[in-house]
Design brief:
The complex is a heterodimer of chains A (about 260) and B (about 325). Helices cover about 80% and strands about 5% of the residues of chain A. By secondary structure, chain A is mainly alpha-helical. In chain A, helix 1 runs parallel beside helix 5 and helix 9 packs across helix 11. Chain A starts with a helix and ends with a helix. Chain B has 12 helices and 14 strands. Chain B has a 6-stranded mixed sheet, sandwiched between helices. Chain B has a 4-stranded antiparallel sheet with strand order 2-1-4-5, covered by helices on one side. In chain B, strands 12-13-11-14 form a 4-stranded antiparallel sheet. The longest helix of chain B has 18 residues. The radius of gyration of chain B is 24 Å and the shape is elongated. The chains are: A mainly alpha (about 260), B alpha/beta (about 325). At the A-B interface, helix 1, helix 3 and helix 4 of A face helix 2 and helix 3 of B.
Chain lengths: ~260, ~325
Amino acid sequence: MTELYRGLWVVAYRELLTFVSDRTRIAASLVFPILFLVIFGAGFGGIVGQMAGGVDLLTFMYPGIVAQAVLISSLFAGVSVVSDRESGFLREILVAPLSRTGIVLGKAIGAAGVAMLQVLMLLVLAPIVGVRLDPVMIAQLVPIVLVLSFVLAGIGILIASFAPTQQGFQLFMQMLVFPMIFLAGVFFPVDSVPAWMQFLSKINPATYGVDAIRHVFLGSGPAAAGLGVSVLGHTMTLVEEVALIAVLGVVFLGAAAWRFGRNE
Amino acid sequence: MIDVRDLRRTFGAIHAVKTVSFDVTEGEVFGFLGPNGAGKTTTISMLCTLLRPSAGAATVNGFDVANERSDVRRSIGLVFQQTTLDDALTAEQNLRFHAFAYGVSADVRERRLRELLTMVELWDRRADRVRTFSGGMKRRLEIARGLLHHPRVLFLDEPTLGLDPQTRRRIWEYLGELREREGLTIFMTTHYMDEAEQCDRIAIIDHGQIVALDTPAGLKGAVGGDLITIDTPNPEAAATELRDRFGLKAILAAGTISFQVQGGETFLPDFIRSFGRPIAAIGLRRPTLDDVFLHLTGREIRDGVGSVDGSPALDGERAR
């Protein structure tokens, strides 16, 4: 038990330490969301005008952009496993008296911590895009970001366990990350796209994370007005979405821990 | 300190290590010498609990490598062939991570960290990222890291591979110092002969088996004594005289006569006085571990690219 706990915190600590000592990564994690907001917001805002429920595009996109930051930094947990394997540092972790499950959970918690830091940085933009913040919202965001991070980190580490080299892995991740972001409803309401695309969106775990974060920022009004995610005719509520992500998190992290313990 | 009984490891049909047994006593520097692919790394991986033995048993610091893995891991320090540092972190951060991972208490950690970084002459560079370090500095840092949690045994897998002679000598100085101060047991693999000379005892491993195990002097003694070479105007006659008067079997190659005697330095003065012919040049060479390896296996250690790949576990990382 102490080996699980110690593995968990030392690995998480190192992920956070690596992030905070990498200025380029910090800058990039702030610049990209702003670019997306400015370019897409300005580009489409004029065409789209106001969306259902009186929401404008920028306001609609902002929670999606926040979710996108979580998505990218969480999937990064997988990248970090592969790059640790290539640099040799993974071996330093593996020979230490730490449990394998603890190491995988530590990677996921580290990724969640990084995601959380990025989300907090992005909150600075809220007033600019017309989203009002209050402490209750921030308190709600924390658990949502955590569970969403765990699912995506689990997926990332699971894929990493199949990837022999970093190049192959990164290529695959790019093929995965972009469709995942675009289909998750970051830039448009999922319920308003063609049926085939709706299907892809609704089997994408990230969709529910994006929508959950949107619920927190914009309340349940927009969802009721058709900007939410409906599954089989039922509009998903915040609690349902968080529960769904949490279950998926357990599944994916469990699978990742199992694969990691067997392979490394 | 290390007790190995009939240890074996196979990878599918490949017998990387076939039945190896030996003991290493406390405070000893024990060397594993052999060509690439001889099974050195596979053996070290089993002793470090990174690889499960296919058969046989081994204990390190009294703990079983198959069943008491965490206790073994806490008892050992490891320095691998390839670096295992986090380049993005500083020297100090790398060491702290290690201390956290091994549960070293905070007061011990900071004291030990300073002591070790000072010893490997990296204290001034402690706040620099490892990315900026040279190969020798990285290896020194890894040695310091491997010792941070007060291990009883330090495992070194080719510790000075690819380093310049000066750095190699420096690393040997640290290791000697540690051994004296902390009674550290050192287990190392190498294919450098001069490095093997530093060991108290050497096991020569070839094709997954130990072919000889002794002190460096003992191993060399088994080869058949010192090698003496003579240049003389009439080598054929000299060879005859050597055979008739001294009972020595001389070999004639490229105009030079060579033969082996025990205790060459006491033999030579008498020999020069009593030898009836002019000598242009005379040479005495002690047998090296190269000669020992050649004698035991019929091959030079350098060209010994074995048919057995002995290190999939550490090179491939994923093999299990």
